[in-house]
Specification:
By secondary structure, the protein is an alpha+beta fold. The protein folds into two domains: 2-61 and 160-190, PvuII Endonuclease, Chain A; 69-153 and 194-237, 2-Layer Sandwich (Alpha-Beta Plaits), CATH 3.30.70.3570. Helices cover 24% and strands 40% of the residues. The protein is built from six helices and 14 strands. It has helices at 2-16, 30-39, 80-88, 150-161, 193-201, 237-240; strands spanning 21-22, 55-60, 67-71, 90-91, 99-105, 111-113, 117-124, 129-136, 141-149, 163-174, 177-190, 205-213, 223-232, 241-243. Strands 1, 2, 10, 11 and 14 form a five-stranded mixed sheet that branches. Strands 3-13-12-5-4 form a five-stranded antiparallel sheet. Strands 6-7-8-9 form a four-stranded antiparallel sheet. The longest helix has 15 residues, at 2-16. The protein is globular.
Length: 245
């Protein structure tokens, strides 16, 4: 792996020396897509690491947003995203007659959704499952059968994030066009899955649902699921990973 890390570091230095480079995509994913294009990675939806066994995460220099570790959908019901949206969602800002569900959930405390429901994660180490538990405002359980399987989570985590490259960039807009200057690279190695579960149980890692609807085009009104993400703050990366370089 050291040879792959050195190769990525060499590529990063090449990109860093370019200074500001024009974004190859707009929007919030532009920073990552532009870097992937610069290192020659083709866009895909695979669960494998981005570059020679190393997963790459990019972030704007000033951003305080959580970093997505990986996406993994719930089990326990068919069309689970549609089910959650239809039963526990709230009206979309544009298509008022359609529901969406874009919320974050923690294991250490419940989160109130649409002033109606409380969402909370439950870590069950005996059954080896992470449950999504939904209550009403009177703390009556409405939902407790949706889950993530720990063995599948372990496989996804270790396959995707055994090695992590964390890249930071300065954004700029020149003549109305987005540019990025990639200036910092840090390399990490995953600790272990038990640590991941403990951080999830403590609320340091959270889960975010990003279930929306298409607002235009031929699929207007249909479910647009941008993923169910396991996320962590940048400042907590060293709780899950060991910094190598």
């Amino acid at each position: 792996m050291i040879d792959n890390i050195l190769k990525l570091e060499k590529e990063f230095e090449r990109i860093k020396n370019k200074g500001y480079v024009m974004a190859t995509r707009g929007g919030s994913t532009g920073i990552g897509k532009t870097f992937e294009d610069l290192i020659g990675k083709k866009e895909d939806q695979e669960s494998n690491p981005d570059y020679l066994g190393i997963e790459i995460k990019t972030k704007r220099s000033y951003s305080k947003a959580y970093t997505t570790l990986f996406n993994m959908i719930l089990e326990g019901r068919d069309e689970v995203s549609k089910y959650l949206k239809d039963n526990y969602g709230y009206p979309d800002m544009i298509l008022k007659n359609k529901k969406v569900l874009q919320v974050s959930v923690w294991a250490n405390e419940p989160n109130l959704i649409a002033n109606k429901y409380l969402f909370k994660l439950k870590v069950d180490k005996v059954k080896r499952k992470i449950y999504l538990v939904i209550y009403d405002k009177n703390l009556e359980v409405l939902e407790s059968q949706l889950f993530w399987d720990m063995d599948k989570l372990k496989q996804r985590l270790e396959n995707k994030l055994t090695y992590l490259a964390f890249v930071k960039a300065w954004p700029n807009k020149i003549n109305g066009v987005n540019y990025y200057k990639y200036y910092k690279l840090e390399i990490y190695r995953l600790t272990n899955f038990d640590n991941f579960i403990n951080l999830l149980d403590k609320g340091i890692i959270r889960v975010t649902f990003k279930i929306g609807v298409f607002r235009r085009g031929s699929r207007i009104g249909e479910v647009h699921d941008r993923g169910t993400s396991f996320e962590i703050k940048e400042e907590d990366l060293d709780k899950l990973f060991i910094k190598l370089r």
